[in-house]
Amino acid sequence: MSEKTAQPSSGMDSAKLFASVLVLIAGIVGFYWFEAEPLFVRIAIIIAAVAVAIGIAYTTSVGKGLWHFAVDSRMEVRKMVWPTRNEAMQTTAVVFLLVILVGLFLWLVDSLLGWIVRSITG
User: pTM, whole model, 2 decimals?
Assistant: First the structure.
């Protein structure tokens, strides 16, 4: 496991993140501003704004940290051992059976408590 030291965020990083958010907002505004244009042009505006915003955010320490987290997470998912179809079906059947049994138990307890309350109150 690698130890990574947290780098303090600078004012420039904050400005870049703010600019990234502004680019996203500008893309959304552009989508509605150009409503007379065809839909694919408006979607292209959104996609371009998101790409530019991600590019700006990546140049910050927060963005790079988020990117490294995503890469490390993907590596961890590749290490996982996924259940076979048969194991998944068996586990699902056990869960369904337990849900039914707990439901029946709770129904019986509720009925018993209801009978007790009716007996006491007359």
Answer: 0.56
